[in-house]
User: Fold this.
Amino acid sequence: MRQFRHVTAQHLFQMREYDARAIARHYRQRPFQVIGRAFTIVWSFLGLIVGFQWDQWRNASEIEIYKRATQLREILTRLGPTFIKVGQALSTRPDLIRKDFLEELIKLQDQLPPFPTPTAFRIIETELDRTVEEAYSEISPLPIAAASLGQVYKARLHTGEPVAVKVQRPNLLPTLTLDLFLMRWAAGWIAPILPLNLGHDLSLIVDEFGTKLFEEVDYLHEGRNAETFAANFQGEPQVKVPSIYWRYSNRCVLTLEWIDGCKLTDLERVRQANLDENDLIEVGVTSGLQQLLEHGFFHADPHPGNLFAMADGRMAYIDFGMMDQLEQHTKETLVDSVVHLINKEYGALAQDFVKLGFLTPDTDIEPIIPALETVFDKAVGESVGDFNFKSITDQFSELVYEYPFRVPAKFALIIRSLVTQEGLALSLNPNFKIVEVAYPFVARRLLTEESPAFRRRLLEILFKDGKFQWQRLESLISMARTRDSLDLLPAAQLGLQYLLSPEGQFLRYQLIHALTEDDRLHTEEVQRIWMLVKDDIQPEHVFNAAWGALTEFSAERAASLIPAVTSIVSPSSAPSETK
Assistant:
């Protein structure tokens, strides 16, 4: 029996993928180990809670209360990597956490106690099957940073390149697996007592977290993530991804390009480098939106310890352990939800929540629609700049108590990523509003993206109840060119090709009708839109775009337009839209 248990433990701690059943089987045979760890966790936080209550009873001074922040950081550090991850997430929310506590929790990002360098060097030699001297011409005697799962040394290859060497902490899996088992066990007990279905997917969320943690402790997986991320952003000069040196990397050691920069939260160094905080915010938020809406491959742990500002204004991502992938239909539904939110089409938005898994398919959405209108109406009203992700999530959380919403496991990471990015931006600029960057990004994508899916979504915005929404087009163009010039010619050429095609017959009618509806020519609206775009459009470019569109069509296809034009002149014979 002892031999069986030993083999089971050895197998568990060499697992490469998270397996909740295997972990449960292992720890059910070790009740004393589980009880001991649970007691340690409860006792640690119980002492902190009692301390807080005691401070209130005796009206303790701010200096004494500040000691509780240090106590919290020390508790999380002592409890290990799982709880350090929780502290890291909290450290990115200056709008939720008191400044004194925030300053302590930020230390969890890269100021954790290191493990001994001789141990780290032994891991390097075991993993790379060569001595440290054979791998690197020089290496720092002490780590330059220590994080929850490993620590980093600065080194130089024999070929001269400066590199960062990440070395994983020894014996990580015993602690991670035990904490995950306890979290999953606690989720099973807590879920039934939560209001409605708040705990519906609690165990699945723990499983998602466990899966990502196991991926994060495999540095080969992290290296592959980094290369995928770099490929996605190869056309974005503002985003820097370090190169991976595979010859000097393995499951517990990762050698990557050295990045010279400063943490985004180090405002003094950011200003010394003459970098604009708002520009850095825009790069960070825009790259985050690209990850979610374009690539579908997103960084799920973008805390300040993983993001650096470089002297040339670029933003560098340096940690790719916790990533996730969105399916194509999920990306499209997310864009749909933005479109429906802009249109204030809350019935369609409720259907989007069903598609995304926040509501089950058999849910009666009719009573939910007015509630969604109450929550979101102000967010997309006249004061768009007052929108922020936290305010919406706070209001939305109230709906969860009244209606059968649930948070799908995958979206727990997406929400964490969005909240973390907004928190990071708030640390740079307390007055930051995420919509001031996000809305122009979505507008630009809708106006310039050439794919049929985005073209369809743009038409959904511009036409409502059969009428062309001039104000929406003005708003989209204004927002899309908030910071930079806007090149609409590629989209205009594609749109002209679509208008001249058989599929564009209904749109041709709608467009002419929009120009002449209410028995008048809408010249004022056209003039306002022209004033918005005229500085970005050169006459010769317009001619080239039009010529390019026209050359796509044969004489036969051009002749086929004549009946359509006739139908436009005679409104009574307007074509019906086909779906």
